[in-house]
Amino acid sequence: AQKVTQAQTEISVVEKEDVTLDCVYETRDTTYYLFWYKQPPSGELVFLIRRNSFDEQNEISGRYSWNFQKSTSSFNFTITASQVVDSAVYFCALSEASFGNEKLTFGTGTRLTIIP
Amino acid sequence: DTEVTQTPKHLVMGMTNKKSLKCEQHMGHRAMYWYKQKAKKPPELMFVYSYEKLSINESVPSRFSPECPNSSLLNLHLHALQPEDSALYLCASSLQGEGVTDTQYFGPGTRLTVL
Fold this sequence. Notes:
The complex is a heterodimer of chains A (116) and B (115).
Chain A: E1 3-5, E2 10-14, E3 19-21, E4 24-26, E5 32-39, E6 46-52, E7 59-61, E8 64-69, E9 74-79, E10 88-96, E11 105-106, E12 110-115
Chain B: E1 4-7, E2 10-13, E3 18-25, E4 31-37, E5 44-50, E6 53-57, E7 64-70, E8 73-79, E9 87-94, E10 105-106, E11 110-114
Parallel strand pairs in B: 2-11
Antiparallel strand pairs in B: 1-3, 3-8, 4-5, 4-9, 5-6, 7-8, 9-10, 9-11
């Protein structure tokens, strides 16, 4: 069975600090997909990134970067120079690649608060 | 455009009422999903429709009845709900490419309160 662990329940940092959100996953499949979603107070889940298990290249998008390490089953998310608008709950999710079955297993989420 | 719309934004209903939640997407996606999210918890999958057919029902009580009239529209009919059904109901859609796990795009949700 697949599982996603986000050990950090809540994080608070002062604006402009860097912050890393941890995600550790478990799966028996060799082919799988990892996702990060952002959920601001409005409630909508906003897609941030998708990574497949064969692509370990790290990715940077503006102030956001992701570090995928299969050796440690981790897919961590770093926000550089944080801003108040980054305050939200962030979910890491895992999906095993089987046709017709796109079930997402979510972690419990990390609530990030950026203090102005 | 990765927009999924949901109506209404908020809904308050009594335990004897019948109401419906609506979800719409015009991205040509062929898979649509209903999730339930309680406060401070991750979303929980309820139903999946693939090519307008129900493909997954996560043992959801029959007081929740999904419907997919066409590939762009997904409804969730509610009847005789309990106060513990109060939650944020999220709709999502994905392309459903063959053999590929597609990204799910979520709507803004409907905040349901059952009195």
